[in-house]
Amino acid sequence: MLHYDVIVIGSGPAGENGAITAADCGKKVALVEKEAVPGGASANTGTIPSKALRETALAIQQARNRDAHGISFQVSSTVTVPELMGRRGLVTAREHSRIRAALNKAGVEQFRGTAYLADPHTVRVKIPGAGGAYQEITGDVILLATGTRPFHPPQYTIDNVRVYDSDSILMLDRVPRSLAILGGGVAGCEYASLFAALGVHVSLIDSKERLLPWLDAELSHAMQDLFAMAGIDLHQQIRAQKLEPGDRDVLVTLSDGSRLVAEKVLVAAGRVGNVETLNLPAAGITATEKGLLEVNQNFQTSVPHIYAAGDLVGFPMLASVSMEQGRAAMSHACGVARGKLTGLLPVGIYTIPEVSAVGETEESLKAKGRPYVVGKSSLAGNARANLIGEAVGALKLLADPTDGKLLGIHCIGPHASDLVHLGQAVMSLGGDLSYFVEAVFNYPTLGEAYKYAAYDALDKIRSRRVTRLERAASK
Q: How many angstroms separate the CA atoms of 152 and 46, rounded?
């Protein structure tokens, strides 16, 4: 039996970075991956493939919006979705090579197979194609990073012919005429805008009052308005009760009694943890109904030497956060001091246009009774946004009205997931609105929107002060 200081199960962002962190701490590390290639859903079925398709859709939309006379763009009715992914194969292959090289450089021993726990310290790795044979290894510390998969509600039959989930939708044999999306979460919203940009008639059905309700409400409403402008039919505070596939289309019956017809249906009902094969009870661990694991601030499960990180521990289920969770978990396990995982975790939603945010929302500040001021800059007037054919959205800053310290950054528009990082950096370093006013920004750039949003916020702060002085003088 082979013994290791650390055993990591799963090679997605959390597993990869957790394993390398432990190895860099001088630990003997084993990593178990059931698939033939590393990277998990991020590299293989979710993040990279979907963003590859998005880049194609975005390029088509931007080209149309640039009003280049004499040039027309049209998506062939026979093109397959995989063909539209462009550089997906190249990017994914490079990710596989990068991950393997990083693990090898760190000295992480890699096992191919399905892992399950025989006891709190023993992992059995079922070897693929070996008739049930397995390799048994033991570890002082175990990191569970098996990720998640799309949830299949029992009332829907996902046949991958008419009805798909957020993984299988990427294997469509052609771009459909129409698509009904059940669920207004991140995946549902991203695919709604993506397919709308490809010219598909999209119906988005969501049970909530507004899309992505954990976003700043103004951002959420702005996204809904842009979706409507893009021709997406929004059916909100409604559920799909029944799906009836026919020869060419699917009849969708909604909870309000209405019906709609779509050629294809995407069920985007969230994700569940990949825990079935882990045999968690043998280690004394219990998962939630959604297959997720509860952890403390150090990412320890109820069994202290068994850690969990990444999508398996729930919200926000972002690759960027999963990487840091894996590093933080294994730093703690190896007794290496490091700061707690930062509270300034940016959220990037790759709709068209993008949505990104970090820090407080207006709603969270109101709930805390904390005063704030809002500064906004419309991207419709930004020269760079106009040049790239995506002049929509706005940058919104939330700041303390007494000292101008930044409290939150919210952006909807082109490259929002990149744009938010400047504000995140200033916030992390305790900066205030004066930085943006005094800084020199390249022109034309999206980043200069920060300067005008800061001017707007400072004007409101001055107005407040003048109003207070006038009130004081009148007494």
A: 16
Rounded CA gap, 74 and 179, in Å? Answer: 18
Instruction: Determine the residue type at 205.
Output: I
Distance CA 118, CA 233 (A): 50
Largest CA distance in the chain: 89
Please choose, from the candidates 327, 297, 309, the residue with its C-alpha nearest in 3D space to the C-alpha of residue 23. Answer: 327
pLDDT of 337 reads 82
Q: What is the predicted pLDDT for the residue at 217?
A: 97
- For residues 47 and 26, the answer to whether their CB atoms sit within 8 Å is no
State how far the Cα of 214 lies from the Cα of 141, in Å rounded to an integer.
35
Distance spanning both ends of the chain, measured CA to CA: 84
Q: Mean pLDDT of successive 10-residue segments in the chain (475 residues)? A: 95 96 97 92 83 87 70 71 79 91 97 95 91 92 96 95 94 92 96 94 96 96 96 96 94 96 96 95 96 96 97 92 95 86 86 96 97 97 91 96 96 97 95 96 97 97 79 70
CB 353 within 8 A of CB 414: yes
3-state secondary structure of 158: coil
Predicted local confidence at residue 42, as pLDDT: 81
Nearest to 193 by CA among 171, 164, 223: 223
The token pair at 365 is 């500040």
CB-side neighbour CA atoms (13 Å) of 295: 24
Q: Determine the residue type at 214.
A: W
User: Are 390 and 413 within 8 A, CB to CB?
Assistant: yes
Closest CA relative to residue 223, chosen from 357, 82, 64: 357
Check if the beta carbon of residue 384 is closer than 8 Å to that of residue 395.
no
pLDDT tens profile 122-161:
999 998 887 889 999 999 999 999 999 999 999 999 999 9
Token duo for residue 447: 């980043």
Among residues 215, 228, 148, which one has the least CA distance to residue 185? 215
DSSP letters of 238-268?
A: --EEEEEE-SS-EEEEETTS-EEEESEEEE-
| CA–CA dist 312, 274 (Å, integer) | 7
Q: Which two tokens stand for residue 68?
A: 């280049």
Comparing CA positions, the residue from 66, 61, 64 lying closest to residue 352 is 61
β-bridge partners, 252: 243, 260
Helix H or strand E segment including 38: none
Distance between CA atoms of 45 and 55, rounded to whole angstroms? 16
Question: pTM of this prediction?
Answer: 0.90
Which residue in this structure is represented by tokens 């929107």? 449
